[in-house]
Specification:
Elements: E1 24-33, E2 36-41, E3 46-50, E4 66-71, E5 79-85, H1 88-96, H2 101-106
């Protein structure tokens, strides 16, 4: 049986993946089942996003998580893929550097 270690309290953020190209940040509103989720994005749109097969077993998400979304080019702007989930320490870094200002304006964040 594997032993789980508690993360050190002085944990520092080494790297935070920022959106590039057509990627946007979003907050996960609800799980829909079948590896699909409803995500409220920074650009003001609500998208139905899926967790791709390569991340399905490694990426566990809950409601309220901050995620990186890539909108689909061919399926319209209402759908997308979840590329990355930010850890709490990374979310703090994003807030501190002003990347999540628009999410706070969207409401209840």
């Amino acid at each position: 049986m594997a032993k789980f270690r508690k993360a050190p309290e002085g944990e520092e953020v080494v790297r935070v993946r920022l959106p590039r190209g057509g990627e946007v940040l979003g907050i996960l509103d609800r799980r829909l089942g079948g590896s699909r989720c409803e995500v409220r994005c920074l650009d003001g749109k609500t998208r139905i996003c899926r967790i791709p097969g390569r991340l399905k077993r490694r990426l566990w998400v809950r409601e309220g998580d901050i995620v990186l979304v890539e909108p689909w080019e061919y399926g319209g702007d209402a759908k997308g893929d979840i590329l990355y989930k930010y850890r709490p320490i990374q979310v703090d870094w994003l807030k501190k550097n002003g990347h999540l200002d628009k999410l706070e304006e969207l409401d209840e964040f």
